[in-house]
Amino acid sequence: MYVSDIPEEIEGILFSEEQIKEKVAEIGKALTEEYDGKDPLFVCILKGSTVFFADLIREVKCRLEIDFFRASSYSGTKTTGSVDADESGLPDIKGRDVVLVEDIIDTARTLSRLKEIFLRHEPRSLKIVSLLDKPSRREVEGFSADYLGFEIEDLFVVGYGLDCDQQFRNLPYIGIYKP
Length: 179
Ligand code: IMP
Ligand code: MG
Hints:
This protein is 22% helix and 34% strand. Helix 1 (17-35) crosses helix 2. It is of the alpha/beta class. The chain has helices at 17-35, 50-57, 109-120; strands at residues 10-15, 41-46, 65-75, 78-85, 97-105, 125-133, 147-151, 157-158, 174-177.
Protein backbone atom coordinates (compact mmCIF):
# COMPACT_ATOMS: atom_id res chain seq x y z
CA MET A 1 0.00 0.00 0.00
CA TYR A 2 1.05 3.61 -0.49
CA VAL A 3 1.88 5.15 2.90
CA SER A 4 -0.59 7.94 2.21
CA ASP A 5 -2.83 8.90 -0.69
CA ILE A 6 0.18 10.63 -2.17
CA PRO A 7 3.26 8.47 -2.91
CA GLU A 8 6.61 10.03 -1.98
CA GLU A 9 7.64 10.40 -5.64
CA ILE A 10 4.83 12.90 -6.17
CA GLU A 11 5.89 16.50 -5.65
CA GLY A 12 2.42 17.98 -5.82
CA ILE A 13 -1.01 17.65 -7.33
CA LEU A 14 -1.44 19.53 -10.60
CA PHE A 15 -5.09 18.62 -11.25
CA SER A 16 -7.44 17.16 -8.66
CA GLU A 17 -10.11 14.54 -9.32
CA GLU A 18 -12.75 17.30 -9.27
CA GLN A 19 -10.89 19.51 -11.75
CA ILE A 20 -10.42 16.55 -14.10
CA LYS A 21 -14.04 15.48 -13.82
CA GLU A 22 -15.26 18.96 -14.70
CA LYS A 23 -12.95 19.22 -17.70
CA VAL A 24 -13.86 15.75 -18.99
CA ALA A 25 -17.56 16.64 -18.82
CA GLU A 26 -16.87 19.82 -20.78
CA ILE A 27 -15.02 17.95 -23.55
CA GLY A 28 -17.71 15.25 -23.59
CA LYS A 29 -20.40 17.86 -24.11
CA ALA A 30 -18.55 19.42 -27.05
CA LEU A 31 -17.98 15.97 -28.60
CA THR A 32 -21.66 15.09 -28.17
CA GLU A 33 -22.60 18.21 -30.13
CA GLU A 34 -20.17 17.38 -32.92
CA TYR A 35 -20.83 13.64 -33.23
CA ASP A 36 -24.51 13.17 -32.45
CA GLY A 37 -26.05 11.12 -35.29
CA LYS A 38 -22.66 10.19 -36.84
CA ASP A 39 -21.97 6.86 -35.09
CA PRO A 40 -18.29 7.77 -34.51
CA LEU A 41 -15.48 5.39 -33.59
CA PHE A 42 -13.57 6.48 -30.49
CA VAL A 43 -10.05 5.00 -30.40
CA CYS A 44 -8.16 4.74 -27.11
CA ILE A 45 -4.38 5.02 -27.50
CA LEU A 46 -2.99 2.42 -25.09
CA LYS A 47 -2.05 2.50 -22.39
CA GLY A 48 -1.88 6.09 -21.11
CA SER A 49 -5.32 7.24 -22.14
CA THR A 50 -7.33 4.32 -20.71
CA VAL A 51 -8.56 6.14 -17.60
CA PHE A 52 -9.37 9.36 -19.48
CA PHE A 53 -11.02 7.32 -22.24
CA ALA A 54 -13.27 5.38 -19.85
CA ASP A 55 -14.46 8.60 -18.23
CA LEU A 56 -14.75 10.54 -21.49
CA ILE A 57 -16.93 8.10 -23.43
CA ARG A 58 -19.46 8.16 -20.60
CA GLU A 59 -19.72 11.94 -21.03
CA VAL A 60 -20.43 11.61 -24.75
CA LYS A 61 -24.19 11.26 -24.85
CA CYS A 62 -24.71 9.87 -28.33
CA ARG A 63 -24.28 6.55 -30.12
CA LEU A 64 -20.63 5.61 -30.60
CA GLU A 65 -18.29 2.61 -30.89
CA ILE A 66 -14.92 2.12 -29.24
CA ASP A 67 -11.66 0.45 -30.16
CA PHE A 68 -8.05 0.37 -28.95
CA PHE A 69 -4.65 0.94 -30.52
CA ARG A 70 -1.24 0.52 -28.97
CA ALA A 71 1.59 3.05 -29.36
CA SER A 72 4.58 3.92 -27.23
CA SER A 73 7.64 6.14 -27.30
CA TYR A 74 8.66 6.81 -23.71
CA SER A 75 11.12 5.07 -21.39
CA GLY A 76 11.08 6.43 -17.82
CA THR A 77 10.78 10.21 -18.04
CA LYS A 78 12.55 10.48 -21.44
CA THR A 79 11.13 10.20 -24.93
CA THR A 80 12.98 7.60 -27.03
CA GLY A 81 12.38 9.58 -30.20
CA SER A 82 11.00 6.59 -32.09
CA VAL A 83 7.34 5.65 -32.10
CA ASP A 84 6.36 2.03 -31.73
CA ALA A 85 3.01 1.23 -33.43
CA ASP A 86 1.91 -2.10 -34.87
CA GLU A 87 -0.32 -1.34 -37.86
CA SER A 88 -1.74 -4.86 -37.93
CA GLY A 89 -3.67 -3.92 -34.78
CA LEU A 90 -5.40 -1.02 -36.52
CA PRO A 91 -9.20 -1.01 -36.20
CA ASP A 92 -11.32 -0.98 -39.37
CA ILE A 93 -11.72 2.78 -39.86
CA LYS A 94 -12.48 3.15 -43.57
CA GLY A 95 -15.32 5.64 -44.03
CA ARG A 96 -15.74 6.19 -40.28
CA ASP A 97 -15.71 9.37 -38.23
CA VAL A 98 -12.74 8.59 -36.03
CA VAL A 99 -11.77 10.27 -32.76
CA LEU A 100 -8.29 9.48 -31.44
CA VAL A 101 -8.10 9.82 -27.66
CA GLU A 102 -4.64 10.50 -26.19
CA ASP A 103 -3.44 11.32 -22.69
CA ILE A 104 -0.78 13.91 -23.46
CA ILE A 105 0.96 15.64 -26.36
CA ASP A 106 4.64 16.30 -25.77
CA THR A 107 6.92 16.42 -28.84
CA ALA A 108 3.82 15.38 -30.88
CA ARG A 109 5.84 12.70 -32.66
CA THR A 110 3.47 9.96 -31.48
CA LEU A 111 0.27 11.62 -32.62
CA SER A 112 1.64 12.93 -35.90
CA ARG A 113 2.83 9.40 -36.71
CA LEU A 114 -0.53 7.91 -35.69
CA LYS A 115 -2.40 10.54 -37.68
CA GLU A 116 -0.37 9.59 -40.76
CA ILE A 117 -1.12 5.87 -40.24
CA PHE A 118 -4.84 6.44 -39.63
CA LEU A 119 -5.28 8.82 -42.59
CA ARG A 120 -3.76 6.23 -44.92
CA HIS A 121 -6.69 3.96 -44.05
CA GLU A 122 -9.24 6.51 -45.28
CA PRO A 123 -11.50 7.45 -42.38
CA ARG A 124 -14.34 9.83 -43.28
CA SER A 125 -12.93 12.25 -40.73
CA LEU A 126 -10.23 12.16 -38.07
CA LYS A 127 -10.04 14.30 -34.96
CA ILE A 128 -7.75 14.27 -31.97
CA VAL A 129 -8.64 14.66 -28.32
CA SER A 130 -5.92 15.04 -25.71
CA LEU A 131 -6.31 15.57 -22.00
CA LEU A 132 -2.96 17.37 -21.64
CA ASP A 133 -0.57 19.31 -23.86
CA LYS A 134 2.99 20.53 -23.26
CA PRO A 135 3.38 23.00 -26.17
CA SER A 136 6.86 24.13 -25.09
CA ARG A 137 8.17 20.62 -25.86
CA ARG A 138 6.85 20.50 -29.43
CA GLU A 139 9.09 19.08 -32.14
CA VAL A 140 6.43 18.66 -34.82
CA GLU A 141 5.69 22.30 -35.70
CA GLY A 142 2.08 23.42 -35.60
CA PHE A 143 0.67 20.16 -34.27
CA SER A 144 -2.31 20.57 -31.94
CA ALA A 145 -5.33 18.65 -30.68
CA ASP A 146 -8.84 19.42 -31.93
CA TYR A 147 -10.12 19.08 -28.35
CA LEU A 148 -7.81 19.76 -25.41
CA GLY A 149 -8.20 19.49 -21.65
CA PHE A 150 -5.31 21.39 -20.09
CA GLU A 151 -2.16 23.06 -21.37
CA ILE A 152 0.74 22.49 -18.95
CA GLU A 153 4.35 23.58 -18.52
CA ASP A 154 7.33 21.35 -19.19
CA LEU A 155 6.73 19.01 -16.22
CA PHE A 156 6.67 15.23 -16.04
CA VAL A 157 3.26 14.23 -14.76
CA VAL A 158 1.76 10.90 -13.65
CA GLY A 159 -1.61 9.57 -12.55
CA TYR A 160 -5.04 9.30 -14.16
CA GLY A 161 -3.55 6.78 -16.61
CA LEU A 162 -0.17 8.45 -17.09
CA ASP A 163 2.86 6.50 -15.95
CA CYS A 164 6.54 6.61 -15.13
CA ASP A 165 7.90 3.18 -16.08
CA GLN A 166 4.38 1.72 -15.80
CA GLN A 167 3.83 3.02 -12.27
CA PHE A 168 1.26 5.49 -10.89
CA ARG A 169 -1.41 5.01 -13.57
CA ASN A 170 -3.96 4.28 -10.82
CA LEU A 171 -3.65 7.62 -9.01
CA PRO A 172 -7.03 9.37 -9.35
CA TYR A 173 -5.41 12.83 -9.80
CA ILE A 174 -2.60 14.19 -12.01
CA GLY A 175 0.56 14.68 -9.99
CA ILE A 176 4.00 16.13 -10.66
CA TYR A 177 6.66 13.45 -10.64
CA LYS A 178 9.85 14.19 -8.69
CA PRO A 179 12.80 12.99 -10.80
P1 IMP B 1 5.15 12.64 -27.83
O1 IMP B 1 5.25 11.68 -28.95
O2 IMP B 1 6.48 13.23 -27.46
O3 IMP B 1 4.11 13.72 -28.05
O4 IMP B 1 4.79 11.82 -26.54
C1 IMP B 1 3.54 11.47 -26.20
C2 IMP B 1 3.57 10.28 -25.26
O5 IMP B 1 4.65 10.38 -24.33
C3 IMP B 1 2.33 10.24 -24.44
O6 IMP B 1 1.36 9.43 -25.04
C4 IMP B 1 2.81 9.67 -23.12
O7 IMP B 1 2.74 8.27 -23.16
C5 IMP B 1 4.25 10.06 -23.02
N1 IMP B 1 4.44 11.26 -22.16
C6 IMP B 1 4.80 12.50 -22.53
N2 IMP B 1 4.89 13.32 -21.50
C7 IMP B 1 4.55 12.60 -20.41
C8 IMP B 1 4.42 12.91 -19.01
O8 IMP B 1 4.63 14.04 -18.52
N3 IMP B 1 4.04 11.87 -18.22
C9 IMP B 1 3.79 10.62 -18.67
N4 IMP B 1 3.88 10.30 -19.97
C10 IMP B 1 4.26 11.27 -20.83
MG1 MG C 1 0.74 7.46 -24.21
